[in-house]
Write a structure and sequence with these properties.
The complex is a heterodimer of chains A (about 190) and B (about 220). Chain A has about 190 residues and is mainly alpha-helical. Chain A contains 7 helices and 4 strands, in the order αααααβββαβα. Chain A has a two-stranded antiparallel sheet. Chain A has a two-stranded parallel sheet with strand order 2-4. Chain B is elongated and about 60 Å long. The model of chain B is unreliable at about 1-10 and about 200-215 (pLDDT under 50). The chains are: A mainly alpha (about 190), B mainly alpha (about 220).
């Protein structure tokens, strides 16, 4: 059997893949020994197969596997992810709500006072009877000169006065207005 | 011999995979990572061969892997898992390309005359390839560039057969074409790449890589 160059080129891929009948393969090998051009084509094609067959050419972008696994995670564990998400959201909501409550309690302690500039009392006995008048901002002990001549005086407990936003008089109840004063009136209100 | 079919999986590995697939079907979903890990780069390169865009290829590769997981019950043991997975990637990539009309940008190299004979243009001697040449980034870039210049029908066959080492039959199955078509396209792809890369042409090598004129890049 004799083959020409064109026949060799047609079969050169099958030759490399060892996918030829033995007779043709043997004939081609004889041809290669005599034909430098076909040998060049054979070796060059073999080089191509060898070069591209190297795994170093199968590069993937940096972080490819990480991104793929993350996406797989979302598909494989949707409930876990949702539950985790809910947990995070719930925790965040609790933190926010707690913050609001603290802020609210701090601000309400002052804004509830009848005077923005008043100083709340400290450790005022809650059951102590005090006197106040409806339009005023302070409560007093009976007989305080600051309520002299006032009408509509009411006598209430310090606890009740505190609840209504009244603060101790700076004159008659001065001892309860310490610089370290905290909010509230006695243990009941603090 | 060089160029002969290199088996992708050993029989033991195929048995291992079959056992993994059964356990995944039974609910051990976390084993899917182990099953798919050896083929992640191949899924990506199959998608890249069709789309030629790394971002799209990555997206398609992810879709393909997810699809394989969702349809793992449809996998039939007569095929290799790797072939099935790559087939999914090929189909996903083709759908993406159709959707984006990317075929309008297809290179013309080898697009026509699939049936006719291909005549080599270069007959320079090109025998030696030091394997360390692939360590060089410009060499890899040059090989990638030459591959991208092939039209899709040759590129996808070449990638699956010569880069991913699927058999001729597996390549035909993954691409949904006949064995004869695979052989024809593979021959043309190899010869075209050889013509593009052969040192004697003083073409791609000497234009893109700073080698001295007429010398081999390896």
């Amino acid at each position: 059997m004799v083959v020409n160059c064109e026949q060799v080129w047609r079969e050169i891929s099958n030759f490399l893949d060892d996918d030829l009948d033995p007779g043709l393969r043997s004939t081609m090998q004889e041809h290669f020994q005599e034909c430098k051009r076909c040998t060049a084509v054979l070796e060059g094609t073999r080089n191509v197969v060898q070069l591209y067959g190297d795994e170093r050419l199968l590069e993937v972008p940096l972080g490819f596997d990480h991104r793929l696994h993350r996406r797989l995670d979302e598909s494989l564990y949707p409930t876990r992810r949702t539950f985790f998400g809910w947990m995070v959201a719930a925790a965040a909501a609790m933190v926010v709500a707690g913050g609001f409550e603290v802020a609210k309690s701090l601000s309400s302690s002052r804004s509830g006072l009848r005077s923005a500039h008043a100083q709340p009392g400290h450790a005022v006995p809650p059951d102590m009877m005090v006197v106040l008048y409806p339009d005023g901002k302070t409560f007093h002990v009976a007989g305080c000169t600051y309520i002299h001549g006032k009408t509509n005086l009411q006598t209430v407990t310090a606890r009740e006065a505190g609840r209504e936003g009244y603060v101790p008089c700076v004159r008659c109840l001065k001892k309860y207005l310490q610089a370290t004063a905290s909010i509230g009136y006695g243990s009941d209100a603090s | 011999m060089a160029g002969a079919v290199r088996l992708l999986d050993q029989p033991e590995q195929q048995m291992h995979e079959a056992a993994l697939i059964q356990r995944i079907r039974d609910g051990e979903h976390e084993l899917f990572y182990e099953l798919v890990r050896p083929y992640e780069s191949r899924v990506y390169s199959a998608a890249l061969a069709i789309l030629r865009n790394p971002a799209d290829a990555e997206d398609v590769a992810q879709e393909a892997v997810l699809k394989a997981f969702r349809h793992i019950r449809q996998f039939r043991a007569e095929a290799r898992f790797s072939t099935w997975l790559i087939q999914i990637a090929v189909n996903e990539a083709r759908m993406r390309r159709r959707k984006e009309h990317a075929d309008l940008m297809e290179p013309i190299a080898g697009r026509r005359d699939e049936e006719g004979n291909y005549t080599p243009r270069d007959f320079a001697d090109w025998r030696e390839i030091p394997s360390e040449s692939l360590e060089r980034k410009e060499i890899r870039r040059l090989l990638t560039s030459a591959l991208e210049s092939l039209s899709e029908i040759y590129r996808e066959v070449f990638v699956l057969r010569d880069m991913q080492h699927l058999s001729i039959e597996e390549t035909a199955q993954a691409l949904g074409i006949s064995v004869a078509a695979v052989k024809t396209r593979l021959l043309r792809a190899r010869l075209m790449l050889r013509d593009m890369l052969a040192p004697g042409l003083e073409g791609a090598w000497n234009r893109n890589v700073s080698f001295r004129k007429g010398t081999k890049p390896w």
